[in-house]
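Predict structure. Chain length: 361.
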Amino acid sequence: MISNQTLQSTIEGLKAIARVEFCIMDTEGKEVASTGNISVNGGAVAEFAKSPADSQEIQGCQYFKIYDEQQLEYVMVTAGTGEDVYTIGKMAVFQVQNLMVAYKERFDKDNFIKNLLLDNLLLIDIYSRAKKLHIQTDVNRVVMIVETENGKDSNILEMMRSYYSNNSGDFVTAVDENNVIIVKDLSEGESMKEIEKTAAGIEKFLQKEHMSGIHIAYGTVVKEIKEVSRSYKEAKMALDVGKIFFDEKNVIAYSELGIGRLIYQLPIPLCKMFIREIFGDKSPDDFDEETLVTINKFFENSLNVSETSRQLFIHRNTLVYRLDKLQKRTGLDLRVFEDAITFRIALMVVKYMKYMESFEY
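Prediction complete.
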């Protein structure tokens, strides 16, 4: 349903053009929107609503009925009488009725997209409803999820809708209070780099609007409308996995998740068993800061001893000593590829477990 605020701004715009006062009332005679300098009798409006007439002059004003698919929704009142006021009133009614149709179509599309994302539609319904709503079924699309720290308390949904107002093929919606979902229509040949640019543009826009804690995630490109829900699920996973393993990134793609995607799908008891079998009662992240920095830098440099020692500004033998000390403590030699992989995965598993535990308390 069209909002009262939209009706208010519409009649104010009409007043500025036609220099006529307007008032929109519901069928019970209660004011919905008014330009201010018009006095309307609620009882007269209610009586007019019950009458068979579509327009009528009452007490120096012109009354009009506004229908939504033959259902009476509002009564439009214009100050004054005569042919000119009647014509202006009819034009105003036409404008409001067109707005109602547009908003209804937008609501229907929004409802369709939500159900499509949540997998609530049968395959036959997807194509029949898409055809009815004039939505193309065979164009490339990608689903993006936008989250901010103040998402619940801000009008981020409307902000993103205004940001995408000129892109008729894109849909902006929300299925919960925390995230905004964008189903982006991709032109032929548009690559992942273009999607990255789009995400960067959204981030920049939100930063200008003083939004904080911005996270943007997106799935893979799909070619059929029936696959949009898959891209949405991928974007959701990317958003969660990104917070765990790529917390330094504000924008993350599903295709960048790597092994983090697999770890995220492991049950916590299995993770605990894995850590216990390798390290016993110890945890791979229970080391002093110096050791952890050494380990991470060693991994960053692909197990290259010389480059790691150079970047840490320590002697090569000092690094070897630290790695030997770590081997005695854990039984894993990070210079051996298989041991390094085991240790790296263990660090990621522990990080995942800590993240999940934070939601339990």
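Summary: The mean pLDDT is 89.
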